[in-house]
């Protein structure tokens, strides 16, 4: 805004400004339907952002979060983009040095786009994936009941043997869990993304057999790459 004023650019007033949960904002500017938001929002509006894709990628590589501005009054058209970034305060250097002197490792986390995290374990069949995921289920139940330890071997039909209280504990995890065949994982991840409107997904999930974990990640990558 300051740069616009310095260049004597008149900024028109926006009306009917409305937040679009998890996506961005909508408004009317000089009678035009204007939208501001994430790439996912633009895709939903059928706005082609290809003309600015290279510039956006450069901004994202610098750790900035990109939001698009589009006119959707007639044929959806991208007008521009905004790149948001965090500025490190001068006093941060001293604070970081003090933490490092205490032996605490520090990292800089930036970006303000919606990010989700899921437990994802994939196998050739739903039954095999459930079997592999039983190791993590056991570990979670043990942790919550005061008996933590190393990741145990998988058990067939593990959940069927559990009391109601343990079932309820695991059920709370299922909202952010995609375990099954590639088709099942794709469906559950799709529902999670639709519900959370996350632009990025952190995938985690432990298996007792490292090779099964590698195969799971390969299947998940194939799902995400379509």
General shape: extended
Proportion of helical residues? 25-40%
Provide mean pLDDT, rounded. 87
Terminal residue distance:
41 Å
What is the total tally of β strands? 8
| Rg (CA only) | 23 Å
Structure description:
With 226 residues, the protein is of the alpha/beta class. It folds into two domains: 2-84, 3-Layer(aba) Sandwich (Calcium-transporting ATPase, cytoplasmic domain N); 115-224, no CATH class. Helices cover 39% and strands 23% of the residues. The protein contains eight helices and eight strands, in the order αβββααββαβααβαβα. The strands form two sheets. A five-stranded antiparallel β-sheet has the order 1-2-3-4-5. Strands 7-6-8 form a three-stranded parallel β-sheet, with helices on both faces. A hairpin with a 2-residue loop joins strand 2 (24-29) and strand 3 (32-37).
Structural topology:
Blueprint: H1 2-6, E1 14-20, E2 24-29, E3 32-37, H2 39-44, H3 53-61, E4 65-71, E5 77-84, H4 92-101, E6 115-122, H5 126-144, H6 164-173, E7 177-180, H7 182-196, E8 200-204, H8 210-224
Parallel strand pairs: 6-7, 6-8
Antiparallel strand pairs: 1-2, 2-3, 3-4, 4-5
